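Look over both lines:
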Amino acid sequence: MSIPDRVAAPVASSPSEPVLYEVRDTGVAVLTLNRPERMNGWGGGLATTFYSRLDDAEADTDVRAIVVTGNGRAFCAGADMGNLNTISNATIDAAEGMDVSKLVGARHPHFVTTLRKPVIAAINGACAGMGLTLALVCDVRFAAEGAKFTTSFARRGLIAEYGISWILPRVVGWGAALDLLLSGRVFYADEAAALGLVKEVVQPEDLLPLAIAYAEDIAANCAPSSLAVIKQQVYADTMRDVFEASAVAEKLMHESMLRPDFIEGITSFFEKRPPNFPPLKGQQ
C-alpha cells in the first residue's frame, strides 16, 4: 500500500500526557515532549512515556519515520531536578539522595539509536544536558532560530552523562566536542549548524513542518528494510575498522538484493513513479 499525501492524524494521545503521540497517515509518528511548565525536564513520567511511545512507533507497521519535538519554549532543558526557569538552571543542581537511575528512566538514551526507523529531532528551544544527549541520539536534527544549547555538566560538577562523550565527538569532531564539554558554555542554533550538530536552522514557525516534511519524504520514498539495515550499519560500524565494515556491508548488500524491495526500487526508478515499498515486519 502506498503512502497517501494527506496529513490527518488518526492516532493521537490526550493533551495532558507527558508525551503527546500522533501518527499521521503519511507514515510519520510525531512525539512531543509535553511538560512545558518544566521546560520538558527529563525524568519521571516523561521518560517512561517517551520510551513507551517509541515502542509503539517501532511496532506500528504504518509508521516509517519518527519526529521528536518539544512543547513550549524548550526541547528538553535537561534533568528535572530543580528550578528550570532558565537554561542555566536546566540540569542537576542538587542531587543528594537522588536515585539517578529513576531519573533517567528504564533505558539509556542510546536506545534511540537501536530503533529500525529514522528518528528526526525538531529542536524548538532550550536543549541542555540530558536533552542534548537525547537530540544527539536522534538520526537527523533541525533547530529553530535562537534555540540555545549547552552540555552544562562541567558547570554543575558533573561528568559527560549517558553516552554524550561517545556520540558528540562523532557528530561535531574531537576538538569541538571537547570545547563544548569542557566549557559547558551556551551556544546557539546557528553555531550548532556550523558545527554539523544540526542539519538546518529555520524560523520557529517553520521548524515542525520542515521536520515532518523531511520525515514524510523518507517515509514515501525509502524502503523500510533499507532504512533499518543502514541505521544498524552506521552505529555498529563506529565500533569496527574499515575492513570489517566493508566485509559486513558486502554480506548485507547481497541480502538486500534478495528482497522484493530491491526489485521495486529498481522498477519504480525506470518506470519514473514513486516506489511502493512494503512495511517493515519482523527483523531484517
Remarks:
- The chain has two domains: 11-221, 224-270.
- The longest helix spans residues 204-221.
